[in-house]
């Protein structure tokens, strides 16, 4: 008889330890585990999954190292136990299928699947509101482990109902990147107030689970396609983007968390960037690692001797008392050992192994046990606070802690050499951080909708197929059809489960592959090509810019989502896309050089092989068949062909309907209502009545600006303005005033032509200009509905029609029945029609007005808000300092509609304009995230004001004219302006240099640091060499250009401050430095009547996002963006107060808060006095001795020349602020 080998004996010893320390806590019927002292009989999903991983590791070790048949028998027993555990957990979850269905639709915390169950019955152990059940990481960990175990050859899923439930669990977690949860520690925010947060550890586990299920193939382990779980790659990429923006931070309230070790290494391996992995590891070991393990997070009071066990929550002020005495958890030494093993760092493995051995507890039978945590005793608290990591600690909590004990078993198997690290990762997830694949070229197929389009493209040497010329094996459907198909994937009548909710967007990566459905290969056009999305798609250049950015996004993201095959994008060109008419007159602001790209130009760029840095290949559809990624869809209850026919029944329609198509649609809708009775006329004959109506309409069209800011009302930034003559006003380079702009796209129809629409519309002639007369406002109230309808019947001019319908809307309401043509036609229906006509005419001012009145919400809005929020960029909407509303977490479309109505309920134009700006910001944060560094809150109201301000300066307009001009700007030009502001370039700069979205950004300005870099390029002209007397010297004609340049330079620093203030930019490290300042001040720091109290530093740590948001809350109460920037500069300098005043203990106030506003006013007075001595321009305003000279109009009584000073230098703002600090605190 052969004796056991040494390795076999050691392996049996590990198995015996597992039986005695872990399996002794197992229920023999349900196979679930529980050992928490405080909650006997409660089986946590997370703990049980880690135990399953330990049993699975033992199973693999025995299968690999079996000496005898009895070893194989042990391996099978371990395998069966592991499978039974996983099936029991699945059964616990399946009993809550009704909650899963509700959570998919509404994401309500009370609908979340429970995080723990009864060991004996598999039922619930507490109510929905009695525990923080919403834990995305727990469900994701289960799915990740299920995928790994299945890939190793063990079958857990047994039938198609379980497959459907697993598919629904994917739908449950796929929104995890935007769903705040309670996190690994089940308490949410570290104050234990039950506040949910976006947690990086949860998002990382979600990403890992989605990737693993995407890679595992079928769940039956037999190759059957019916057991395949479908994962949308866009959700994986969203998780990647969020992780990149968050790590090494865990959440708003936690600077970092030791739980992140589980996502940068075993078991998740979800971070592909090696530098980010190293940074996160270094942050955790530097801030949290101690002698006995890692603290969970900073100021964690759990089970410390100072914690009040009688209440679950903490008072905010008591968090600081937990600093330096947080419990240390040995479990994280296990994570660090696993991380070092997978990183092949033998030295670190040995160091952490020895450290772990020193903190293990020996049982009575001699087994090594891993305790839950180590506690500082009460008598050692003071000494530990004085000298951290010097006092002894004692074990606390459960011993053994099953989660930690399971990881200890795994590292023992690896350390002893029974397993290789690769054998615990059958899906090879560990390799993603080491093996970088080059970007994959994007395949593009362009199809013409009709023969006319094909001929026009051929005339430009672009040869493409028509939609009806492609191979019959292919079917082209819009992205919305894929949503309908996914609604059927995961359906289960037995479990009352539906598929993927229809209201969730279909991402670009999901539509960039072929889908095999039966014998057909289906291609879904990108969602941005679907019709009726919004008025933005009527702007040709927005459409082509969308092509560019989305192809670049695919190029950069495809390989990170682990899809075999290349991406394929199909673009269908319609006749309406080939029109370049209807561009707004804003291009006269020197923005037209690189902005008038057409569809033909974009297709030619694609055909060259590169588009905005992305490698693209353009061929016919059949040429890409063998290289394109393919996903197969199967439907158990219905035949695939039947499903495809039901989805394709809806007619495919693409962006930008032609006028003929619109007319046909209108005819179909309007013809059943009876004969037309509307009269045909050129324009209204009663010009006085129409003039009054037009004025009433115009009064409700202007953008509301902040009345507290005089400079914003005036919208004049240059100090010296030249009067505009009549010739300049009539110049073709100036756009005509709103309401007098000729229509170029609305066709004239002959009197015999049948057009079944509610209103006839024609182009406007010069003879129909509106006469401006002084009429009393009361006259409009005396006008009856019939009078307005008569005027409406007379006119065919779109501007007049909209003015009249607008007055009907204001006077009688949107639901008023006009009875036009003896039909039921409400004012809302008329507004819908004129809105459609304005879109076709690309009259953007009219489009925004009508869309705002109809409360139309852009389809892209909720997605854009989510893109910003998950990257930790909050949004405020509404007028600055008055009724701003903050959006801090992802919202549904209904919730966003209510928020927008509250913020802009009485301002139709701002209602639409604000949505557009949010959509553009959401697009840019995804493609150009570096533009948003050190920005936590984007104030849409201030951005609108700054855009109008820049227009006023460039066009020499008044406030009202600038607001009206901003409304006429096309969507693409508006996006271009926002990009220029974010990238730190004034509008003139990229007009001179040229601009493309794909170009490398020269510089991302972030506050005072960037000002210093730009000081060498732009010198402030306010020097002592320029005196007041020199301004009165008459200029020759050839010196006018130089004078204009002077005017431009004189406003540059004010404009820089205004732009940075509107964008809420701060210098790098600003919040941490301000935390230090507040911590030193006994009564805090006062900003604009808001006090940042010293107590904030007791609750929040130095780099905590919650502190940054508290600071933003105070700064955002400042309505004037340029004053906000001066406050930021002052706070930045306050952080260096000791060095500035050359004292170790500055004379700071001990009985009151430090007043930042007072410091600024003192600095301003020093500035004025100094410039008075130098006899500079300040003599004309604040330093004037003439009593007839009034103070300048600078915000908050600060001299406008002080705002316009460079930050650095002898005459810079920092110089005067430092002098004020020395005067006040030396």
From TrEMBL:
BP terms from Gene Ontology = glycogen metabolic process
Pathway assigned in UniProt: Glycan biosynthesis; glycogen metabolism
GO molecular-function annotation terms?
Answer: calmodulin binding
Q: Does the keyword Cell membrane apply?
A: yes
Identify the residues that the record assigns to the GH15-like domain, covering every copy. 9-941
GO CC terms in record: phosphorylase kinase complex; plasma membrane
State the family named in the UniProt similarity comment for this chain: Belongs to the phosphorylase b kinase regulatory chain family.
Question: PANTHER family recorded for this chain?
Answer: PHOSPHORYLASE B KINASE REGULATORY SUBUNIT, PHOSPHORYLASE B KINASE REGULATORY SUBUNIT ALPHA-RELATED
The entry's protein name is Phosphorylase b kinase regulatory subunit
């Amino acid at each position: 008889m052969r004796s056991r080998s040494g390795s076999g004996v050691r392996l049996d010893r590990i198995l015996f330890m597992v039986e005695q320390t872990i399996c002794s806590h197992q229920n023999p019927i349900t196979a679930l585990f529980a050992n928490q002292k405080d909650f006997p009989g409660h089986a946590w999903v997370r703990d049980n999954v880690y135990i399953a991983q330990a049993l699975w590791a033992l199973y693999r070790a025995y299968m690999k190292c079996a000496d005898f048949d009895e070893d194989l028998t042990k391996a099978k027993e371990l395998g069966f136990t592991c499978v039974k555990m996983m099936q029991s957990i699945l059964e616990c979850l399946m009993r809550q299928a009704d909650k899963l269905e509700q959570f998919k639709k509404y994401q309500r915390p009370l609908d979340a699947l429970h995080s723990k169950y009864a060991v004996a019955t598999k039922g619930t152990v507490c109510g929905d509101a009695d525990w923080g059940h919403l834990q995305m990481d727990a469900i994701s960990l289960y799915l990740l482990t299920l995928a790994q175990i299945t890939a190793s050859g063990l079958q857990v899923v047994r039938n198609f109902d379980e497959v459907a439930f697993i598919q629904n669990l994917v739908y449950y977690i796929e929104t995890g990147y935007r769903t705040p949860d309670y996190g690994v520690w089940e308490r949410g925010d570290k104050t234990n107030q039950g506040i949910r947060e976006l947690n990086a550890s949860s998002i990382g586990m979600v990403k890992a689970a989605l990737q693993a299920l995407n890679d595992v193939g079928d769940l039956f382990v037999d190759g059957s396609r019916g057991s395949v779980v479908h994962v949308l790659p866009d959700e994986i990429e969203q998780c990647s983007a969020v992780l990149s923006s968050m790590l090494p931070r865990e959440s708003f309230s936690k600077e970092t968390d030791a739980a992140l070790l589980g996502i940068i290494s075993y078991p998740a391996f979800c971070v592909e960037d090696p530098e980010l992995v190293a940074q996160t590891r270094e942050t955790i070991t530097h801030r949290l690692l101690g002698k006995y393990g890692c603290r969970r997070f900073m100021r964690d009071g759990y089970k410390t001797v100072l914690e009040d066990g009688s209440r679950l929550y903490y008072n905010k002020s008591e968090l600081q008392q937990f600093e330096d005495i947080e419990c240390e958890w040995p479990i994280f030494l296990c994570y660090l050992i696993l991380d070092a093993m997978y990183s092949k760092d033998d030295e670190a493995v040995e160091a952490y192994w020895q450290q772990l051995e020193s903190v293990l507890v020996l049982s009575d039978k001699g087994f090594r046990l891993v305790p839950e945590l180590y506690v500082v005793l009460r008598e050692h608290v003071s000494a530990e606070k004085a000298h951290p990591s010097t006092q002894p600690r004692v074990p606390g909590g459960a011993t053994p802690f099953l989660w930690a004990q399971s990881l200890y078993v795994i590292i023992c198997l690896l350390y002893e050499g029974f397993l290789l690290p690769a054998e615990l990762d059958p899906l090879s997830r560990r390799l993603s951080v080491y093996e970088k694949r080059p970007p994959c070229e994007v395949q593009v197929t362009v199809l013409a909708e009709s023969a006319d389009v094909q001929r026009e493209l051929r005339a430009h040497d672009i040869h493409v197929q028509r939609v009806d010329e492609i191979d019959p094996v292919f079917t082209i459907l819009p992205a919305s059809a894929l949503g309908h198909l996914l609604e059927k994937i995961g359906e289960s009548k037995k479990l009352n489960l539906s598929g993927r909710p229809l209201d969730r967007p279909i991402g670009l990566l999901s539509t960039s592959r072929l889908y095999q459905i039966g014998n057909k290969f289906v291609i879904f056009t990108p969602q941005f090509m679907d019709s009726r999305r919004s008025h933005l798609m009527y702007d040709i250049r927005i459409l082509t810019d969308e092509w560019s950015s989305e192809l670049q996004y695919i190029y950069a993201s495809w390989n990170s989502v682990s899809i075999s095959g290349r991406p394929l994008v199909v673009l269908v060109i319609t006749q309406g896309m080939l029109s370049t008419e209807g561009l707004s007159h804003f291009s006269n602001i020197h923005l037209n050089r690189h902005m008038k790209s057409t569809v033909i130009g974009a297709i030619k760029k694609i055909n060259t092989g590169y588009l905005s840095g992305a490698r693209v290949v353009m061929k016919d559809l059949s040429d890409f068949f063998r290289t394109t990624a393919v996903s197969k869809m199967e439907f158990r209850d219905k035949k695939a062909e039947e499903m495809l026919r039901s989805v394709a029944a809806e007619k495919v329609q693409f962006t930008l309907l032609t006028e003929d198509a619109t007319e046909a649609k209108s005819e179909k809708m309007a013809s059943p209502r009876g004969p037309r009775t509307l009269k045909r006329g050129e324009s209204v004959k009663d010009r006085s009545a129409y003039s009054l109506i037009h004025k009433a309409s115009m009064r409700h069209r202007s953008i509301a600006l902040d009345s507290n800011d005089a400079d914003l009302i005036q919208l004049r930034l240059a100090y010296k303005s030249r009067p505009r003559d009549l010739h300049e006003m009539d110049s073709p380079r100036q756009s005509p005033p709103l309401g007098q702009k000729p229509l170029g796209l609305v066709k004239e129809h002959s009197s015999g032509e049948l057009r079944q629409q509610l209103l006839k519309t024609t182009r406007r002639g010069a003879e129909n200009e509106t006469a401006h007369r002084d009429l009393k406002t009361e006259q409009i109230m005396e006008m009856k509905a019939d009078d307005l309808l008569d005027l409406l019947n007379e006119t065919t001019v779109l501007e007049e029609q909209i003015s009249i319908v607008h007055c009907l809307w204001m006077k009688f309401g949107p639901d008023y029945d006009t009875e036009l043509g003896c039909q039921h036609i409400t004012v809302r229906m008329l507004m819908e029609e004129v809105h459609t006509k304005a879109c076709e005419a690309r009259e953007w001012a009219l489009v925004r007005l009508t869309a705002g009145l109809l409360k139309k919400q852009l389809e892209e809005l909720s997605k854009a808000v989510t893109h910003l929020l998950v990257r930790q960029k909050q949004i405020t909407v509404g007028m600055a300092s008055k009724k701003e509303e903050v959006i801090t977490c992802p919202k549904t479309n209904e919730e966003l509609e209510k928020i927008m109505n509250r913020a802009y309920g009485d301002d139709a134009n701002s209602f639409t304009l604000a949505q557009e700006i949010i959509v553009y910001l959401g697009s840019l944060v995804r493609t150009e995230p570096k533009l948003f560094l050190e920005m936590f809150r984007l104030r849409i109201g201030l951005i609108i004001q700054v855009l109008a301000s820049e227009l006023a300066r460039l066009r020499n307009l008044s406030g009202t004219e600038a607001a009206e001009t901003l409304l006429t700007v096309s969507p693409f030009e508006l996006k271009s302006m926002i990009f220029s502001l974010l990238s730190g370039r004034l509008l003139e700069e990229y007009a001179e240099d040229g601009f493309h979205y794909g170009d490398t950004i020269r510089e991302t300005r972030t506050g005072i640091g960037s000002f210093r870099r730009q000081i060498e390029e732009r010198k402030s002209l306010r020097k002592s060499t320029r005196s007041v007397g020199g301004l009165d010297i008459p200029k020759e004609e050839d010196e006018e250009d130089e004078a204009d340049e002077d005017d431009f330079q004189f406003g540059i620093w004010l404009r820089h401050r205004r732009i940075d203030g509107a964008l809420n930019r701060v210098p790098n490290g600003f919040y941490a430095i301000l935390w230090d300042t507040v911590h030193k001040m006994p009564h805090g720091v006062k900003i604009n009547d808001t006090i940042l109290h010293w107590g904030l530093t007791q609750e929040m740590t130095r780099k905590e996002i919650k502190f940054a948001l508290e600071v933003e809350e105070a700064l955002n109460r400042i309505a004037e963006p340029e004053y906000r920037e001066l406050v930021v500069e002052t706070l930045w300098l306050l952080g260096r107060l000791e060095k500035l005043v050359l004292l170790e203990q500055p004379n700071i106030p001990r009985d009151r808060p430090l007043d930042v506003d007072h410091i600024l006013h003192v600095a301003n007075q020093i500035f004025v006095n100094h410039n008075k001595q130098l006899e500079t321009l300040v003599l004309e305003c604040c330093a004037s001795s003439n009593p007839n000279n009034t103070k300048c109009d600078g915000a908050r009584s600060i001299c406008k020349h002080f705002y316009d000073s460079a930050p650095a230098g002898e005459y810079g703002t920092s110089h005067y602020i430092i002098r004020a600090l020395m005067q006040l605190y030396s």
